[in-house]
Amino acid sequence: MDLSIAEQTLLVLKELAEAGGIGPGKILVVGVSTSEVAGTRIGTGGALEVAEQLLSGVNRAAERFGFSPVFQCCEHLNRAIVMERKLLEQLGLTEVSAVPIPGAGGSMGAAAYRAMTDPVLAETVQAHAGIDIGETLIGMHLRRVAVPFRPSLRYIGQARVNAAYTRPPLIGGERAVYRKQEESGSKLCD
User: Is the pLDDT score of 35 beyond 70?
Assistant: First the structure.
């Protein structure tokens, strides 16, 4: 299979969106090491050109499925999240001050920031799903119960890909029901 980086990204996100029901009203966090995608060690060879290719695939998937992508910066910005101001305000998140650049924020954060209409940074987000390209550790930005997802394509470029979607926590005990039943049972809870 000889797919471009944008096509590889679109394929993985298509599979994730379908498996996790990631569509309108959902947030997907993207963590990327463009260095790893290009075949070097994380933090040693970041490239805006690679980030722009990845961004193309992310944006195509977002248009197709209707989710809102947000982008994790690198550790130099404490893994802050790049997003559109409208989404930040909708979620009631607190803005933090920085402008990501390749050397402080990462190439992916910088490319996403440049491409957005009204970009801002939030300290954190609780996303419904995420894709981690190059093992950048996105878990801090996912909702509490993450379900690992293994896409059919395990690498984008030279970077290993991990993904997850989230689900609500299951609560209750032995009598708890997690799916809507056709008719109510005979046992009452008083």
Answer: yes
